[in-house]
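User: Design a sequence. Structure:
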């Protein structure tokens, strides 16, 4: 597995282990003798942590944790929970994060869905947001470590303090709503590989994760670049994520899921208005994969038909239709 550069003279390599006892490691680096041939040991001790999310052995439409607990996925959209700044560009503090998660756990939330990074000036669907999430300079040759380090630290904090809360990590921003992807397509293969290698090396050892490649995207015959990006990233995760976290990509509201029969997709992620009923679920039953409602409506989008005092207005129905 790959290590990742974490600034100054620091390289890190991470592994998720599910067996207790002594472990040995050794490094190999053809381009830097200071990193080559290093070795060491560590001891893994038993714990009561639940471990990774896996397919249920009796029902592939459901998930269980590694210790055999069924996961009822009650999800909260918390886009900027792991980020330095929120959608307005204001700072997100560790205290904000702790209070949010405490409230979620009090209400019975079992997972949160979060961006992997944010833009310093606030949320914006643009190529600038793409660069601001992951790249330090316009040359796109250096990664924006400050963003990635914050996400990393927050994931560690959640794992240490709320290990039973799963995190759907949204890896890449949306360049523009209802438009074919252009930023990823313009990157060189070396730039794509470098970014994917770093993200997997940094994040994949966290057991509580499940992947979402992007969110709110349009796929289909009119969006060949978006299709190609999702497939390329999905194939990379399938090949290089040693712990095989559940993986999908997010479709815009009311669009049918486009990649259901493809091997890199392990759950179906769709959006609908207010709740996911049997009629929305039915087209995907034959896939024998979990179906996840990634978004319904925001509070400001209720329109004139819904009373703001009604619970359907206030509660986000982000859970599987079939229990």
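Assistant: Done.
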């Amino acid at each position: 597995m790959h290590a990742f550069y974490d600034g100054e003279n620091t390289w890190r390599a991470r592994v998720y282990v599910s067996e207790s006892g002594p472990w040995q490691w050794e490094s190999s680096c053809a381009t830097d003798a200071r990193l080559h041939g290093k070795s060491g040991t560590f001891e893994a001790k038993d714990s009561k942590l639940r471990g990774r999310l896996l397919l249920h052995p009796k029902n592939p439409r459901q998930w269980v944790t590694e210790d055999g607990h069924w996961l009822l996925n009650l999800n909260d959209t918390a886009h900027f929970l792991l980020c330095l700044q929120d959608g307005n560009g204001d700072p997100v503090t560790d205290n904000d994060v702790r209070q949010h998660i405490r409230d979620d756990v009090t209400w019975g939330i079992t997972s949160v869905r979060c961006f992997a990074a944010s833009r310093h000036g606030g949320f914006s669907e643009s190529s600038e947001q793409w660069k601001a999430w992951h790249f330090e300079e316009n040359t796109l040759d250096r990664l924006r470590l400050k963003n990635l380090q914050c996400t990393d630290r927050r994931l560690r904090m959640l794992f240490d303090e709320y290990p039973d809360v799963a995190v759907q990590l949204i890896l890449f921003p949306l360049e523009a709503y209802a438009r074919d992807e252009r930023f990823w397509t313009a990157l060189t293969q070396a730039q794509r590989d470098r970014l994917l290698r770093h993200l997997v090396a940094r994040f994949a050892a966290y057991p509580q994760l499940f992947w979402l490649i992007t969110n709110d995207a349009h796929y289909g015959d009119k969006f060949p670049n978006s299709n190609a990006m999702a497939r390329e990233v999905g194939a990379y995760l399938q090949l290089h994520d040693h712990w095989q976290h559940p993986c999908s990509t997010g479709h815009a509201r009311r669009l049918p899921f486009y990649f259901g029969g493809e091997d890199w997709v392990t759950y179906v992620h769709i959006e609908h208005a207010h709740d996911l009923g049997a009629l929305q679920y039915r087209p995907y039953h034959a896939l024998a994969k979990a179906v996840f409602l990634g978004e319904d409506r925001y509070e400001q989008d209720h329109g004139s038909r819904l009373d703001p005092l009604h619970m359907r207005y206030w509660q986000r129905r982000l859970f599987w239709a079939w229990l």
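The chain has one domain: 51-314. Residues 51-314 form a domain with the TIM Barrel fold (CATH 3.20.20.80).
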